[in-house]
Amino acid sequence: MVVASMAPAGAAEHTVTAAPSDESDALGTITPNGVFKPASGYGASDYEAAAVKVTVSGPSTMTKNATYNVKVTGSSKVCGIIEQSVPRQDMKRPYTIPVTLSDLKAGSSRLKVYAVGCSKTDSYPVYGIGYKTISQPVHIGKVTRWVAPASEKASDRKLTVSVTTAKTGVTARLVKGTKTVRTLGTRKARKATFTWAPGKTRPGGYAVTVTSGGTTVRVPTGIADNWAPMNPPFARCKTLTWSYNAANEPARAKNMAVDIKSGFNRITSATGIRFKRVAKGGTISLTWAGKKHFPDGETDADGLGGSSGNGVVATKGTVWFNTASRWVGDPGYGRYDGVPGRGALIVHEVAHSLGLGHVTTTSALMYPVSGVGSPTSLTRYEIAGLNSLYNAKSC
C-alpha cells in the first residue's frame, strides 16, 4: 500500500529492496490495511542490501490527474503490490502498475509501496519497499457533487468544500466557465471549510476553484433543477439487470410485472439507461414485504426503494412494495379520480434505487406524497437528475 507519512520537502526518490529465497528471507509482513511488521533481525541496512527493486515514478508535485507508475523487478515470488491511499491491492502481473492518488494531504508526503508475495491470508510477506516524496500544495478533501435546493434533506441544500493547503491562506470561488459567480470566502489558515446555500442560483454545471500559494485546483460541482441526490448512482454505460419476485403479491396487484416492465422502459426512453430483466437476483430486485418493512400496514408507505454500494458507485438496488397497500390495486400509468395509478409508485421507487431522493417540489414525481393531480410517471425533473447522474445517451 502507499503509506502517507511526513517527509522533508525536496527529499529524493529512492528504492529499498530485498532478496527473497524463501518466505523467511522476506523483510517482514504487511496486512492489506497497511500495518507493516519487520522480520526479526532486519534493520535499515538489511533493506538497502536486498535484491527485489521497487521503483515509484511520477511528478514530484501532485496534480489532480497525476499518475504514478509502480515497477517491481527481481523475483518470481512477488505476486503484486499493496499500496495505500487509493487504497487497493493488485495481485497480478505485470508489475508495472499505474496508481492515481486522491487523498494525500496538502504538504509533503511520503509515498510507500510494498512488493508482496502470494498469500491466502490477511498477511503478506514483503520482499521490497519503494518510496517517493510528493508535494501537494492544495488538497480538496470534500466538495458537494450536486447541490439540491429542492431536496427534502437540509444537508443536500448547500455546497460544502473542505480544504487543506501547504501554505497559510486559501480562497475558494464558485465559477461558471471562467467567470466567478461567487467568492465563497478567504481564510488565513492551512485548513478551511466553506459552505454556501445557492438560493435561486441558476441550475447547471459549475466548478469550485481553490487557490493557495499561487496554486489553483478546480473541482466540478452542480446545482440540481428540482431533483435531489440520494445515493451514488450505478456505474455508467452498463446494462442494469432487474428481477421481480412475485411471492406474497396480493391478489389486487394482478399484472404488477407488466407495469414494472413498462416503468423500466419509460426510464430507458427518457434517459437511455439500459435495463434487462433476469429471472432472479439482478442489479435491482423488486419484491413484496409486510410488517418487517411496513410496520404500520395499510397506513404505512406504499413502497420503499434504495441502493447500497462502495461509496463511489451503487452495486445493488432494492424496491419493496407494501403487501397492505391499496394503491397497488390501481394498475397502469393513468389516473383514478385524478390520482395516479401504481405506475407512478413503481417508477418513484426505482428512481430511488437509481440514486434520486425526495424533493419539496410538489409537481415532481419524487415528491414523497402522491395525490390528485400528482405526476403519473417521470417529469422533466427526474429526467434531468438521471441524465446528470448517468449521461447514458453519450455511452
From TrEMBL:
Highest taxon in the source lineage: Bacteria
Q: Region entry Disordered: which residue ranges?
A: 1-24
Alphabetical list of Pfam families matching this protein: Peptidase_M10
Q: Which UniProt keywords apply?
A: Hydrolase, Metal-binding, Protease, Zinc
Please state every residue range assigned to the domain named Peptidase metallopeptidase: 238-392
SUPFAM superfamilies, per this entry? Metalloproteases ('zincins'), catalytic domain
Entry-linked Gene3D superfamilies: Collagenase (Catalytic Domain)
Name this polypeptide is given = Peptidase metallopeptidase domain-containing protein
Source organism per entry reads Kineosporia succinea
